[in-house]
Amino acid sequence: MNEITKDNTCGDLGRVTTILESLEEKVESGKITIREAAIELHKAGWTNYIDIDTTKELLGFNSIGDE
User: Fold this and answer.
1) Secondary structure letter of residue 11 according to DSSP
2) Structural domain total, the chain
3) Is 47 in contact with 53 (CB distance < 8 Å)?
4) For residue 14, what pLDDT is reported?
């Protein structure tokens, strides 16, 4: 059985990413919009409604034009 190490790796499976890291990468690469990320965070229970401003803060997009 693979053992989880201090740096969030699990043997040869690689690093485990959080939903925030995953969504941030997808928004930055243009695979999804910030609104789609907000919907995903809402579905996952991170927000009570589709909140684009909170999504921007959680993903680290604090200034205008970072989408």
Assistant:
1) G
2) 1
3) no
4) 78
| Spatial separation of the C-alpha atoms in residues 54 and 38, rounded to whole Å | 8
Q: Does 47 reside within a domain?
A: yes
Statement: residue 8 has pLDDT above 60: no
Q: How far apart are CA 63 and CA 53, in angstroms?
A: 11
Closest to 13 in 3D by CA, of 21, 5, 22:
5
Residue in this structure with the two tokens 């990413």, named with its chain if needed: 17
Residue-level pLDDT at 66:
45
| Secondary structure percentages of the chain, helix, strand, coil, to 5 | 50, 5, 45
Mean pLDDT, residues 25-45? 97
What's this model's pTM, rounded to 2 decimal places? 0.71
